[in-house]
Amino acid sequence: MSVAATADHDSATRAQRTKIIGDACVVCQQTKALSATRLAGADGCNDVDCVVPMCWPHHHLYELGGLDLLHHLEPRWRREIAHAVSHLGLFTAYRRLTGGRLPAADLRRLPS
Ligand SMILES: [Zn+2]
Ligand SMILES: [Zn+2]
Asked: 63 C-alpha to center of ligand 1: Å?
């Protein structure tokens, strides 16, 4: 095994892992091998509202800041979005959830 999981990958609590059982990746709807991903990343906490289900590739992409997640989260995961805002503030949460994209670019973005 050459791939080492980072501490963040394994830091979800039992309750957070339980929350995502039977759910699907918020991006691709895959239902296998999901990760309880903290929207606020390392700034997150152990509250169940802190996590959404994601497959590992999307989890990894999100951690790298290369994923525009927001349109995948609306409207179902609003509670989790609001929770992330409570950690990060609105500006930072917006940037984190959109992969750093500007609002003007988002208006033209179609859901993929
Ligand atoms: Zn996925
Ligand atoms: Zn939290």
From this structure: 13
The answer to whether residue 91 sits within a structural domain is yes
Residue 112 lies in a domain: no
The domain in which residue 54 lies consists of 7-107
Give the distance (Å) from ligand 2 centre to CA of residue 69: 17
Pick from 34, 46, 48, 49: which is nearest to 84 by CA? 49
pLDDT averages per 10-residue partition of the chain, 112 residues: 43 95 97 96 96 97 93 97 97 92 60 57
Number of domains in the chain: 1
- Which pLDDT belongs to residue 7? 41
